[in-house]
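Onboarding guide, step 5: your first structure request.
Type a short instruction followed by the sequence, for example:

Predict the 3D structure of this protein.
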Amino acid sequence: FYHSHCFRAWILARNCAGATRTAEAVFPAGSRTHSGSFLPCVGGSPALNHGTDPFLLFKERGVTAYSSEISWQLNLPDYVGVQMQSYEAALSRALAKYHKVPRGSYLISDRNRGYSPEFVELATYVFAANGFEFWNYYTLYYPEGCSILGCPDNLKAIRRAVLTVGAVEDRLADSDAVPARTAIGWSQTSDVWDMSHPRPKPEWLAPGNTIYSGEKPYLYLLLRHLHQPVDILSETDLTEGYPVSYTHLTLPTIYSVY
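The system replies with structure tokens like these:
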């Protein structure tokens, strides 16, 4: 059971790597394949439940740029706050480190879904401070849906944020996150064995959506409130020497110890 799911993720990563090589051969130098808006998903099903090992995907060059939507996270309040953007940034750094790929995201910015001007502006600063190289504010067409067209206060917040970031853009371009001495382990083993249990009801308790999904970001937020810079490491990272510079490693799941 365990190896079949790992093999499934390996096949996906290798197939995507082949597609990346094809794209690089056809398109101009510097062209990127990126991970879209929900892959790797950091919330709704952040597990092998959908056949993806995000660390393997990036390590094998299945994608050559990080792109995601802001941090959907079941077993958490949706968009718990701008601090969740910091968690996504930590995850993006963890995935980008293998090949130093560029990172970006998009930020749903309309009041129809409850996102205030304050949220939009502060989340922009989190992206900028964490080294994201590109982001956008989702759609601008009809005012009824996920659009900022009917949200003038949010448009003003975007303008303020863009002007503020632009004023220090040169400094941000040469900066990086503070090196962390504390790391959180991301256990794909836990994701696999999570799927071995019978599929429960309701749906949000399905494999990949258990408390383990929430445990990682909650632990991350706790450590950040204690003023600890935090990185995220995969199980493979642990066996390949990445934790040598860390003084603390937390594994937020029982399966990791087996």
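Each response can be followed by summary notes, for example: The two ends are 16 Å apart (CA to CA).
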